[in-house]
Amino acid sequence: MIRRPGRRTVLAGAAATAAAGLSGCLQNPDPNNGGGGGGAQKYTEGDTPGTGTVTILGAFGGQEQSAFEESLADFQSEHDITIQYTPDQDFTTTIQQRVGAGDAPDIALFPQPGGMFDLAAQGHITPIDVYLDYDALAGTLIPGFLDSARLQGRVYGAPMRMACKSLIWYPKKAYEAAGYPNDPATMQELYAIADQIKGSGIAPWSDAWGADQATGWVGTDWIEEFMLRVHGPEIYDDWIYHRMPFNAPEVVEVFGLVGELLKGEGNVLGGTATILNTPFSEAPLPLFAEPPQAMYVRQGNFVTGFLPADILENLDEEVGVFAMPTWEGGFEGQPILGGGDLAALFTLNDDTVEVMKFLTSPEFGGPWAQAGGWLSPHKTFDASQYADETTRRVFDIAANAQVFRYDGSDVMPNAVGGGSFWTGMVEWLQGAKDAQTVCDEIEAGWPS
To answer: How far apart are CA 383 and CA 46, in angstroms?
Structure first.
């Protein structure tokens, strides 16, 4: 049995203070102050009757579409509203084209906030404080979620599902048999456990970035996770919204810290060449080899979809998960990096408002939760509806976080978040360019 490293207590008061400081960002805007969206005045029920039909455009189809529609079935019957959902794999382009042609859906479900901000700035989207109880919504959501939909003081979308990325997965049976702790309070404690794993003769970490033209996105997540933990959500926001330059000293520092983990001898199975040349979906597989070749993989809740069939059949017995810990000396609360679909309103009437109220409430999503592959962004959601204990554990991690922040590359301009940041991560991991050079080049190419 391996003795657990001494746990440093993160004081509850400090975490509460941090959360309280962030809550100031979530103040209810005054709808009478204008703002760039369509519909500045407060909505009054009955002023604009609906048509009985509400159209929704989103990016997900297949089994997700079926679970989404099942989650709306009872609502439609109870409110006598027909919801017509259209999936589009090229959602980002299609929504822009349809709005430009005067054919906007009543509601759109944005997988990233960037496209929503573009249309909100043009006055096409109604701010949520016009028609939703903003304070009640903020009170049930994971803190910080609405900040991800804020533009110039107004919030234009409300989340209807969440992705949680700040997770560390491990092979439960082998890990527990070795006696390794599964609740490190800080990254430094996790590093101490990783050193013990190395001492046993295997690599602590498995990691993989391969994704064809998108190779490198996993690396951007590593930088974002460390920016959030080391420097906290305020500096993180300054960075992703370019209120500070990409090549600021704080960012270069984080590249160095991530490099110590990923490039350190023996830390990652196969080293940097394996990371770059292995599809990201294969990262968890070495954990479940016989015997395990690694003990940790850092990835979002969707990673379970890539696990072997025999592991999935016994998910709760085979797979363990804990939150990526805090950074000692950094932000004292537990942050969560993730994403989510943001529901935004183009047509304001009684029916569309009723749909938005339900879509963005803790009551939405029960059938989807039971089907799997969906997480509620509401900390008050009834977690018993999830299909397995592993998903409930992930939900509990997210629901108890002090702050949520959107994946930074999804917020940055696409030329950066889906371009130079991805390629820069590859060049940096290869050793072709150092951190300062990569950050300087990304900053120089940031769209004006």
So the answer is: 35
Element (H, E) at 240: helix 217-240
pLDDT in the model for residue 125: 97
- The Cα 231–Cα 341 span in angstroms is 26
196, part of any domain: yes
Does residue 430 share a domain with residue 344? Answer: no
CA distance readout (Å), 104 to 346, 381, 447: 7, 31, 27
Is position 315 within any domain? yes
DSSP label of 419: I
Going through 158-291 in order, the beta strands assigned E by DSSP cover: 158-164, 167-171, 203-205
Q: Give dist(CA 387, CA 340) in Å, integer.
A: 20
Position 147 scores a pLDDT of 87
- CATH number, domain of 275, equals 3.40.190.10
Find the domain containing 324 and state its range. 167-335+408-444
Strands 82-87 and 53-58: parallel
Name residues of the chain where pLDDT drops below 50.
1-26, 32-39
What's the CA gap between 325 and 254, in Å, rounded? 16
- Cα separation, 295 vs 317, whole angstroms: 16
pLDDT digits 0-9 by tens, 290-315: 999 999 999 999 999 999 999 999 99
Beta strands across the sheet bearing 294-298: 203-205, 294-298, 167-171, 319-323
pLDDT number for residue 319: 98
Contact 129, 306 (CB under 8 A): no
What CA–CA distances, in Å, run from 322 to 70, 82, 274, 300? 31, 41, 25, 11
Same domain for 275 and 374: no
pLDDT value of position 30: 55
Model confidence over 419-436: pLDDT tens digits? 999 999 999 999 999 999
Which positions ≥6 away from 269 have C-beta within 8 Å?
202, 203, 205, 206, 207, 286, 293, 294
Q: DSSP 3-state helix, strand, coil percentages of the chain (rounded to 5)?
A: 50, 15, 35
Same structural domain for residues 147 and 264? Answer: no
One domain for residues 104 and 173: no
Task: Please give the model's pTM, rounded to 2 decimal places.
Answer: 0.89
